[in-house]
Amino acid sequence: MAKPPLTRREREIMDIVYRLGRASAQEVLDNLAEPPSYSAVRALLRLLEERGHVRHVEEGGRYVFLPAVPRGEARRKALSHVVSTFFDGSVEQAMLTLVESSRNKLSSDELDRLAEIVERARKEGK
Predict the structure, then answer these.
(1) Confidence class of residue 62 from pLDDT cuts 50, 70 and 90?
(2) Which of 26, 40, 68, 90 pairs with 107 at a CA distance of 20 to 30 A?
(3) CATH code for residues 1-86
């Protein structure tokens, strides 16, 4: 069964755990914007663990949480969900939207790299 999508707060916690590499509940709390209570953070971490997003190790009597999957894999799954949900599975439409909405933010070098990736995909697809 597919995991339910993360809430805004859960995504925020996952961002912190990925950024730090490993984090205790207190470290997560210290890095949250508008943090809830400590017990709420612990409850969210437990929920994230139950859903398979994080795992924990015990260090000095406290739990330290680590991502359960590498960030690259999590990105691919999240992006796949976005493409499926908002673009009816069309990678082309998703890419067009990304490029169009980022046109003023993309440097010439970035656009060249994107063109190279598309060309490589074209050659590998034949």
Answers:
(1) very high
(2) 90
(3) 1.10.10.10
